[in-house]
Every structure is written in C-alpha cells, then in structure tokens.
Amino acid sequence: MRTALLVAAFDSQLKWCARIQRELESRGFACRVVVPDLRAALSAQQIADAGVASVETMAWDDVIVRSLEADVVVSGLSGPLTKRLSIELSALAPRLDGPGPVVVSGWVGIIIEKITAGYLDRCGTDVVAVNSVHDAAHFRDAARWLGLPDGNLLVSGLPLVSATPQPPRQGPIRRVLFADQPTVPTSQAERGYVYHQLIGYARAHPERSVRLKPRHRPGEDTFHRMKHHPEDLLRGIELPANFQIDYTPVDVALAEVDLLITMSSTACLEAIDRGSRVALVLDLGVHERYGNQVFLDSGLLRTFRQITDDRIGAPAPAWRDGYFHGAARTGTELIADRVEELLASGERPSRAVWETDYFRGAVASHLATAAALVPRQSPLARRRLKHGPVKGTLSHVAYNGLPPVVRRPLKRWVEEHQLF
C-alpha cells in the first residue's frame, strides 16, 4: 500500500493537510498525520474541527526518517520549516535505492506577506501547490531571475475552495459573520475600533444576526498569536441582542451566511466559493501590516459606513478568476493527480532545483548555522560589547532580574541621565 506522511503544526496547516489527506485516502493511500515537536499548538477541538481523527507528535529527526520511508510527504508547515525539511531530505535522499518520496508544499491561505521568501522556502519540493495564477506568475519571474527550474509549480487553487464558486446569493441580508484574524489588526486600539464598528452595525440592523468568529478560543494557539482576544476587549460592554461571539468553524457557518466581513482573512475566498457576499474592512486604510494590499483589485474593499449602508461590492472578475480557475478538477484532485504522475514516472522535480547554485547556497548556510559554525552572541555578550563589561553586566542583570513595572521607569531614568 502506498503511504503518505502529512506534517502540520497549527490548525490552519492541519485543515490544509486534512483536505489533501482525504483525497489521497480515497485513492488508496495509507495516511499518517504528524506534528513536529518544535513550535506547535493543536488543541483537541482544533483537531476535531479539521476533521482529523488523530495526530501524532514526533521529534524532528524522526519526521525526517519517516519522510524517507513514505511515498508522499505533504508539508503544511511554515516556509522556513518546509525549507529545512527539503534541505535535510536533499542530504539524505541520494542514499536511497529509489527516487525517494514525492514532497508536496503549498500555502494554507491567501499570501499577504513574504511572497518571494515563501516561494523560495518551498522551491526545493517536488510539487509547489500555488493558490492563484497571480502568485504563479510572480514565482516564475523569481525562478527565472535566480536560475531555478519552475517545473514543480502547480496552479492548483486553494484546497479549501472549489474550482468554480457558487452563484452569488440573492435576497436580503439576514445573517452576517465577521471572520477575525489573530494579528490583523495588531494593536488593541485598532482591534477595539473594528469590534465597536461591528457592534454599531448590529445596532443599525437589529433584524440581522451578527456573529463575530474569533480565530481561536481563549487559551488556544495559532501560528500567528493573538494578543487582544475579542472576549477580553468586549468584556463588560453591553452588546446588542443580535450580536454574539461564535466559535462555529467558518466552513460550517458559511452554509447560512449572507454577508462575510473581514480584514484580509482567507475566509473571504471560502465565502465567495459558497456564494456569500463579502466586504473587506477599509477603515484603517490599505497597508501591508493589514494584508489588504493584495485586495486592491478585488472590488471588495469597503468602509464600515458603506457596509452599514449595504453598499457591498462584487468580486472583480479578473481577481476572482485568479483564485477560481474554473477547471474540472478541484485543487486537492490536481495535487493528487500530480503526485500520482510523479510516483508512476519516478521523476522528482526537486532534484533539478537541488543542483542549482541558489539551493546549494541555502544548504551551505543551513548546515553551517545548524552546526553552530556561525558564531552566536549571547544577550549578555551583546550588552557587554555595547556598554562595556561593568555597565553591560548591570544592564543584563536589571533586564532579566527586575519586573517590567520596575525595569521600565528605571530604563527611562537611566536614559534621561545618560548613564548608558
């Protein structure tokens, strides 16, 4: 029986892997989902929401060993960890009797930052599943300039959505969902503003059900950590009767949502796929820190005043078609098709990438860093170098030994008196 190892560390990565897992299992693969014992966080509820029966925590070295034993490896991990995976496999795969596993990588949502870096982190895998034709064009340009083969790029579309969205829903807006994000916006003041605008919307439309869907429950973790949870920011505030915080998974809730509001969440694509109206909050402006710069041509950016007045946009056809390519096959089917092609042929597109100067340089850098050949200064050494042995040591002791309530005013006093 053919085997597949799927690797994830956080809930969004697990959901992405779960879609591919179901497709591979339907084709007779025996699948195993593992979580490396690096930075990872998956609660029992997050695992259940992803539709995965169980996951197995595994040491990183064991992940590498199990990868070499599998026919297929699907990395839902972040770019840097996927890069580490491909580099370490590149050092060991040539020792195998056969061609080694087919390694699949991709993005678990819309790319709102590090588009070039994210591609280069994944370029050493056999199948780089790309979510949109716009992203693919950018990656091909980067590959051309860096001398990288691009035969591993596959425009599959996001596995969370279909190839062709449902027709836009008609009729009055009755059910509204706000898809929150853990770090967009980041500051407490901006998050508070967005939440209060949403409450204002609920008050303006008492006949509508308005639900705020946090990215995770209090105490849970995601790849991007939330500092200001809506339950904390809205505690003690009188909320309208038609407003509530709801933890129903977005893919379940969208079955009956007429309007989805968000800043830049990938949930907007899921909503379009299900025929829901979408509005992307514009009040804070357009900025890379909000991730909404990638939606400039979407036709969906709206202020809360426009949203409250029901001046909702429609997806711009060119932008929409970049994500929904209209193929007869879903994204997961296209990924699985390509995997089976490579298994049958014995071809591994990663090998051509591994031979490039770019990838060899990445390997050399990784190995040197991992072997501690590149010197690293401790915080104490850095402070001693900057301030001298006495003042540097005192600074280090104060920083690590004093509580923030004491350390911060002391630091201001020291700076005012120019003691350092």
Describe, in plain words, how this protein is organized in 3D.
The protein is of the alpha/beta class. It is 43% helix and 13% strand. It has 18 helices and 13 strands. The protein has helices at 11-26, 44-50, 60-69, 79-92, 115-122, 133-146, 188-204, 230-233, 250-253, 267-273, 304-308, 317-323, 331-345, 350-354, 357-370, 379-387, 389-401, 404-416; strands at 3-7, 30-36, 56-58, 72-75, 102-106, 127-130, 153-155, 175-179, 209-213, 243-245, 259-262, 277-281, 301-302. A seven-stranded parallel β-sheet has the order 3-2-1-4-5-6-7, sandwiched between helices. Strand 6, helix 6 (133-146) and strand 7 (153-155) form a beta-alpha-beta unit. Helix 4 packs parallel to helix 5. The longest helix has 17 residues, at 188-204. The mean pLDDT is 89.
Mean of residue pLDDT?
89
Level of helix content?
Answer: 40-55%
The rounded distance between the terminal residues' Cα atoms is 66 Å
The strand count comes to: 13
Strand order of the largest sheet: 3-2-1-4-5-6-7
Relative strand content: 5-15%
Question: Which features characterize this protein?
Answer:
seven-stranded parallel sheet; 18 helices; 13 strands; alpha/beta; 420 residues; six-stranded parallel sheet
What can be said about this structure in brief?
The protein is an alpha/beta fold.
Topology:
Blueprint: E1 3-7, H1 11-26, E2 30-36, H2 44-50, E3 56-58, H3 60-69, E4 72-75, H4 79-92, E5 102-106, H5 115-122, E6 127-130, H6 133-146, E7 153-155, E8 175-179, H7 188-204, E9 209-213, H8 230-233, E10 243-245, H9 250-253, E11 259-262, H10 267-273, E12 277-281, E13 301-302, H11 304-308, H12 317-323, H13 331-345, H14 350-354, H15 357-370, H16 379-387, H17 389-401, H18 404-416
Helix pairs in contact: 1-2, 1-13, 4-5, 16-17
